Amino acid sequence: MSEPLLEARDLTKNYGTVEALRGASFTAHPGEVVSLIGDNGAGKSTLVKCMSGVEQPTSGTLLFDGKPIVLSSPNDARDRGIETVFQDLAVAPDLDPAANMFLGREILKPGVLGWLGVLDKKAMRRQAKEHFTRFGASLQSIDVPIAALSGGQRQSVAVARSVAWASKLVFMDEPTAALGVVQRERVLEVIKRVRDEGVAVVLISHNMPEVLSVSDRVEVLRLGRRVARFKAADTTVEELVGAMTGALSHEDAA
Amino acid sequence: MTSTKETTLSTVSGETRTPLLKRLTGANTLWIGLVLLVLVAVFGAIRPDAVFQVTTLQFLLAETAVLLVLSVGMTFVIITSGIDLSVGSVLVFASVSSAMAMNAVSGGDATNAGWGVIGFGLLVALVSGAVWGLLNGLLISRAKIPALIVTLGSFGAAHGAALLLNNGSNVSGIPDRLNRTFGSGTWFGIPNIVIVAAIVTALGVLLLSTTRFGRYTYAVGSNEEAARRVGISVRGHLTKVYLLAGTLAGLAGFMGNAFFRVAVVTGHETDNLNAIAAVVLGGTSIFGGTGSVLGTVFGVFIPAVLEKGLVIIGVKEFWQPIAVAIVLVAAVWLDQTRRRARNQR
Ligand SMILES: Nc1ncnc2c1ncn2[C@@H]1O[C@H](COP(=O)(O)OP(=O)(O)OP(=O)(O)O)[C@@H](O)[C@H]1O
Ligand SMILES: [Mg+2]
């Protein structure tokens, strides 16, 4: 198999006395879909935050393209082509979908106006519209605040935003949790399409059939540690559930 | 508002976009503008002779200009879901230090000073406002002290410092030239001080609604954590917003000097509350994330019109704060109901 794109080794993360991660490891290869599964509170979201620069691990190392890196801010991850759909979505509810999509990456008007920081709202709206259409987010109107959208629509916007910018890797923390059947299928389609373009996708989901249908590999987190790795083709729902609940464990377990 | 018919974006055409006027002002702003219009119309209908007199209007505008400049800065602060209680005290500090600086470089009395001294006075006012704003911003964004407490502190400290500067008395010696041009001068009947306030307001409108700075202001107020996660420097932005509010308070202090021909150390204790009331009346949400400078303009004029109007039609002016209070609470209540309706979707 190819060299890992992103690798986490023995990450720990303490929130006060809470140990959210206790030596968690994780590997993502270029152009693969790898699912990260585990029970509620296993530390999946915390691990993703540590790998996307939102939180700093208490200890442990991150390797990107084989080289150790420190992600001290979300920008450090974004600059490397890593995007994230957070479990809480992290959208600005009072801004419209286009503004959210370009948040932190605004297009400015050319010339003097741009130098003064004037936004090119038209260009952003046009491009956002194209992206949303391409990634199948169905919205009634492009200029209502996100807060006026349904939970699923919000999630679609967050997914569309992340895949629009990711050039290397996308973390998706439960991107289908609030979605209806049609929208869920669309997101899975998007995941495959992004993978085919060579971008790695890390999917977090509690839906095992979904995990098995879309992933190349599965990594299992339990109590803040990686306890098992599977090739999606060679495993079953029973095996995954067994690993998540601790009925069987393969590696890293103390 | 928008059609409830579910369509995919590919079928969204230009027509389904919210109309321009609505997008510009927001529904709340439109209502507040209407309230203002109705007020003017009612007072105008009762006493057309008095209300539409040029001097009445001129006075109303000039008195409101200073508050308008403070409120423009306050609009940015409140949209970030912050608050700035210090603006009135910073105004006094800037006004006193600017007057004293002009006197100092004119050998003790700047009454006959020229443009150079006036320019220097303006600079001193802006810088002293900016310093207080920067201090507020740094304490709020770096030390993570709640804005309410930080600016409550600088509200007291800036006023105390202003009193210390001149032993608690007003500073006279404002250049005549400054007063004649900016203070009492007019341009086609419009007081010059009003033109200054109008320019500041127009710049504020543009800054908030067309620039990246404005967009980040909304984003930080709407969801600070989301702003951080998309790589916006939240701390830096908050610092800049309080710096802006402080600098505008400095400018307001200088405008006050020009208008009143004296730097007064009293009478600005409730400027902060008046500015907050104007901003909230204008449809800016006290919870952050939404609002407009245009709304604030309406919000500034509603109390002013009420005050003048009640006097003109012969109602005791003591009714004015009560009337403003009712409108204010109603405005926030409306905002709350709107939000609740929205969040239940
Ligand atoms: N900011 C925080 N402060 C304190 N404890 C936290 C914080 N974030 C996470 N934790 C704790 O860390 C542990 C792991 O949380 P995390 O959100 O990573 O779990 P998860 O695997 O994503 O769960 P879920 O499937 O429910 O989303 C939990 O016990 C949680 O209480
Ligand atoms: Mg989670």
From TrEMBL, chain A:
Keyword Nucleotide-binding: yes
InterPro entries membership: AAA+_ATPase, ABC_carbohydrate_import_ATPase, ABC_transporter-like_ATP-bd, P-loop_NTPase
Gene3D superfamilies: P-loop containing nucleotide triphosphate hydrolases (3.40.50.300)
Domain (ABC transporter): residue spans on this chain: 6-248
Keyword terms, alphabetized: ATP-binding, Nucleotide-binding
MF GO annotations: ATP binding; ATP hydrolysis activity
SUPFAM superfamilies given in the database record: P-loop containing nucleoside triphosphate hydrolases
Keyword set includes Endoplasmic reticulum: no
Coiled coil region boundaries: none
Transmembrane residue ranges: none
Superkingdom of the source species: Bacteria
Designated name of the protein: Monosaccharide ABC transporter ATP-binding protein (CUT2 family)
Lineage of source species: Bacteria, Bacillati, Actinomycetota, Actinomycetes, Pseudonocardiales
TrEMBL record, chain B:
Keyword NAD: no
UniProt entry tagged with the keyword Nucleotide-binding: no
InterPro entries: ABC_transp_permease
Membrane topology note: Multi-pass membrane protein
The organism's taxonomic lineage, starting at the top: Bacteria, Bacillati, Actinomycetota, Actinomycetes, Pseudonocardiales
Originating species: Lentzea atacamensis
Organism domain of life: Bacteria
Localization, UniProt: Cell membrane
Parts of the chain that traverse the membrane: 29-47, 59-79, 85-105, 117-139, 145-165, 186-208, 241-264, 276-306, 318-335
Protein known as: Monosaccharide ABC transporter membrane protein (CUT2 family)
Main location: membrane
Sorted UniProt keywords: Cell membrane, Membrane, Transmembrane, Transmembrane helix
